Q: What sequence folds into this?
């Protein structure tokens, strides 16, 4: 084999190796599919709270999650979240969920996302008339090995629903 043929084969091998060793750009996560999955999980919050089902509320969080309520009380770990949810759910007479919606979705990866959302509902506190409320909240979500999205961190900022005389927060 002459030098020219060896050089051509070596150049071809170098190009093939260089092209083969570069990893392809990973596909972008499917934002629509992630939004749909998160909406499905988000839809479980209202009924769980309305039913005063603390275990169901806690199951929407990861084992090591943090849940911060509007009064700044916080609970870390699913067992603590369940205990905190039980106390919280016992603090009012009833809650009737209306609408929960994701206002902004930030997809971090195919297994992590951040949402800024709000929930509208009617709250009846003990000894008071029912009042329309809105709860803006932010969630950090992770998709578990079981394929289920759960909240790893949530912060809430509950308050009265906006009226014509009161601008929305």
A:
């Amino acid at each position: 084999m002459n030098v020219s043929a060896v050089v051509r084969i070596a150049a071809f091998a170098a190009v093939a190796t260089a092209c083969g060793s570069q990893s392809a750009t990973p596909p972008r996560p499917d934002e629509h599919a992630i939004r749909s999955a998160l909406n499905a999980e988000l839809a479980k919050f209202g009924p769980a709270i309305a039913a005063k089902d603390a275990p169901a509320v806690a199951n929407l969080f990861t084992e090591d999650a943090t849940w911060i309520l509007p009064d700044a009380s916080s609970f870390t770990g699913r067992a603590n979240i369940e205990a905190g949810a039980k106390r919280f759910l016992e603090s009012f007479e009833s809650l009737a969920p209306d609408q929960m919606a994701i206002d902004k979705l930030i997809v971090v990866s195919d297994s992590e996302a951040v949402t800024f959302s709000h929930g509208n509902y009617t709250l009846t506190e003990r000894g008071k008339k029912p009042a329309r409320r809105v709860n803006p909240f932010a969630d950090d979500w992770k998709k578990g090995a079981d394929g289920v999205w759960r909240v790893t961190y949530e912060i809430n900022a509950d308050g009265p629903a906006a009226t014509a005389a009161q601008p929305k927060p």
In short: Residues 3-21 form the longest helix (19 residues). The chain has a mean pLDDT of 88. Residues 38 and 51 are 21 Å apart (CA to CA). Helices lie at 3-21, 31-42, 45-50, 54-58, 78-90.
